[in-house]
Amino acid sequence: MRRSASIPLAALRQPPQPVALRFAADREVPNNPRLPLVIYRGALRLDPAFDPAAIFEEAFAANGWGSSWRNGIYPFRHFHTRTHEVLGIARGQARVEFGGAAGEQLEVGPGDVAILPAGTGHKRLAQSADLLVVGAYPESCDIDQKRAGEMDVARALATITAVPDPAKDPVYGANGPLRALWGASARVV
Predict the structure, then answer these.
(1) Torsion sign, CA atoms 17, 52, 91, 46
(2) What does each C-alpha distance from 52 to 17, 73, 101, 134, 157 come to in angstroms?
(3) pLDDT bucket at 128, cuts 50 / 70 / 90
(4) What mean pLDDT value characterizes the chain?
(5) How confident is the model at residue 184 (pLDDT cuts 50, 70, 90)?
(6) Domains in the chain, ordered, with CATH?
(7) In the 3-class helix/strand/coil scheme, how is the chain assigned residue by residue?
(8) Strands laid side by side in the 37-40 sheet
(9) Strand partners, 69
(10) Is the pLDDT of residue 166 over 60?
(11) Which residues fall within 8 angstroms of residue 109, CB to CB, at 6 or more apart?
(12) Were both Cys, which of 2, 8, 22, 61 would link to 36 (CB 3.0–4.6 Å)?
């Protein structure tokens, strides 16, 4: 497997199949009052000629989402108040709770992307042994992490509303569906 700038991102991007979900705040997790969680199923075709994590890293970096990391998803409920986050599933599968205890459990697998607006609670509930996730953040944001119940929800909401929208969709760029999805209404859970 190669990791290089020669990854043909345009050929690996698949048509977006977005799911947008809005979550209400609860006592432990603020979620985002304005922006929905966006899931793209099979956003990137993971060509076996390339390191699957590098495909996500290249796509995210090309669209202004930096400070990338490779790991999994924490098994405790947490959120970010000063940044949005993107998670790309490079390998394996996981069941993730999004939106806190009253949110929704979703299965994610290879090629899937989850775009979490600031404040969105998330927690891994189950995973395959080979799970590998690539995460990144918009370059204009300041990275933080809070556990559920660790911060007053009202104070967290005040911080979340000041987080700027990203300039580009982390997978599909300036013309990607994220801007429209974050401007449109979504199903509230």
Answers:
(1) positive
(2) 20, 17, 31, 9, 35
(3) very high
(4) 92
(5) low
(6) 15-175 (2.60.120.10)
(7) CECCCCCCHHHHECCCCEEEEECCCCCCCCCCCCCCEEEECCCECCCCCECHHHHHHHHHHHCCEEEEEEECCCCCCEECCCCCEEEEEEECCEEEEECCCCCEEEEECCCCEEEECCCCCEEEEEECCCCEEEEEEECCCCCCCEECCCCCHHHHHHHHCCCCCCCCECCCECCCCHHHHHHCCCEEC
(8) 65-71, 132-138, 85-91, 113-116, 37-40, 18-22, 187-188
(9) 135
(10) yes
(11) 89, 92, 93, 94
(12) 22
Q: Are 93 and 108 in contact (CB under 8 A)?
A: yes
The predicted structure's pLDDT at residue 150: 84
Per-residue model confidence (pLDDT) at position 5: 53
The residues that bridge with 79 in the sheet, in sequence order, are 146
What is the separation of C-alpha 18 from the centre of its chain, rounded to a whole number of angstroms?
12
In tens, the pLDDT along 58-111 reads 999 999 999 999 999 999 999 999 999 999 999 999 999 999 999 999 999 999
